[in-house]
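Researcher: Let's continue the batch. This sequence belongs to DUF1772 domain-containing protein, and it's 158 residues. Same format as the previous ones, please.
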Amino acid sequence: MVALVPALAFAAVIGSGLMAGLFFIFSVCIMQALSRLPPEGGIAAMNAINDVILNPLFLSAFMGTALLSLGLIAVALIWGGQGSYLLAAGGLVYLVGTLAVTMVFNVPLNNALAAASGQAAVDLWRERYLTGWVWWNHVRTFASTGALALFVLGFARS
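Model: Same format as before. Here are the structure tokens for DUF1772 domain-containing protein:
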């Protein structure tokens, strides 16, 4: 089991790094660009992104890193080796700040935007999506970056 720890940690570094980059680009570029479009254009583009992103590669990185996080937390509790607390902390940060935030805040707004039409969609876009969704995306950016840092430090000590 101890021999697997570095491999699990390395995979978690890659997965959390991919997620940090994805969420970062949404925070600093994509959402700002979409907000400059007429609301109907921004809504259409965001709905298209939300449809396309649900693919095997994204889901493997996103959910795979969540599974690795769970595994690293369990291994840290059992193994208790050097760096294990960092790996467990990285897993916890990823699970709460990336996975849970996505499921509790971002996905419901994505679903609401997809279901809305006409003026209701425009109002949702302006009043909740460009503020709330973006704010929670910033949280995911910081969380996945923090998880990445903790996984790197834990990997270096494993």
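Researcher: Any comment?
Model: The chain has one domain: 4-157.
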